[in-house]
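Journal club prep, notes for RB
We'll compare a predicted complex against what the paper describes. Inputs for the adenosine-5'-diphosphate case:
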Amino acid sequence: MNVFVLNTGSSSVKFQIITTDLDLFENDADEMVAKGLIERIGKEDAIFTLEAIGSEPVRGTESIHDHREAILKIKNWVESKETKIKGVNGWKDINAVGHRLVHGGEKFTRSVLITPEVIEKMEECSDLAPLHNPANLKGVAACSEIFPSTIPQVGVFDTAFHSTMPEESYLYSIPYEFYEKYRIRRYGFHGTSHRYVAYRYRKLTQTPREKTNIITIHLGNGSSMTAIKNGYSIFNSMGMTPVEGLIMGTRSGDIDAGIIEYLYRKGMGELPDIMNILQKKSGMLGISGISNDMRDIEKAAADGNKRAQLALKMFAFRVKKYIGACFAQMGGTDAIIFTGGIGENDVLSREMICEGLECLGIILDKNLNNQAQKGKCMRISKEESSCHIWVIPTNEELVIARDTVRVVKDAPREW
Ligand code: ADP
């Protein structure tokens, strides 16, 4: 099947076309045949990059008003005679659509066929993710218009993998009625990524699911860590929203809730203004005062910038703190896995995080850490390490494509 995998943000549309099917999963014979990104949707100078694998990408700038126009742009490109996508000779060759959906609340614990009833339930979850869910739903609505009604659309939720967390892990210590009334609880995010790297680890090490005890660490612009015990997520460091937990590019991660009230009293604005500070002006950007991008911060730190050096130390300190927490919750772990833009590429962050964790049997091999190559899975711990360290590149789109096939074919889901 050719699956159109779609990830819609508030002003962006990212897609891949992946050729996959049940018989291809086992040998990893699925193939990504096209990909692209449209940004600045809603502006006169929206930017697009469309690439058929094996051909030069098509890039440009034009006015794109909404998500529907963006997907029509992709359709026209797929239909164009100049576009040569392996196995796809036009829009008619796309067999299904897989959507990345951010917040499934407690309503969705696995991937589902999108029906009017599902859309209604997702709208109910929008309250929990006002930035993400409405944008995701725009993608669904646009596809319903642009694809024939016979083309199934499947929703894959970021929160679903964490639906196995026990209540002692997901409840907040505020009056219980708020959980009952408003569903205030930890949901966890990046589930598709955590699920993918756990699956890949399991395949690499031939570990059965029920014996998979690992900590998966997704470090990117947004960062989160998952404790996976006996194959299931028992904890994720993001909470009811993606602002909790690790220090991120621009998000604060954990802070004392009292700070919010204090900032209000200090005249930093109304609640939305203060939340904007915690979401967009904090984290690595807020501490370093330079950038939210780890590469810029490391460069400044190497040039002697004290606040950049401090940001790097704080970042590693927080990740270490959560590794310790997950370790204790799980009663030990067989491996920690780094993934995401920073986890996969940043030698220095991995080294700073692992430094001092020898007491937990986590012993980094600095040479191997240096050798880890972009896009490759690699073990980077010393042989004597009782808890191994891995770098495993994530692939959320592949999970979405495979889940789409499973849902469409009513096949059992492995994880
Ligand atoms: P997102 O969370 O938006 O999916 P990614 O997982 O793609 O983000 O991570 C993007 C971040 O990864 C960048 O902002 C940058 O901080 C970091 N990054 C990417 N490449 C490198 C690199 N070679 N070295 C250090 N950091 C990197």
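Talking point for the session: The chain has a mean pLDDT of 96.
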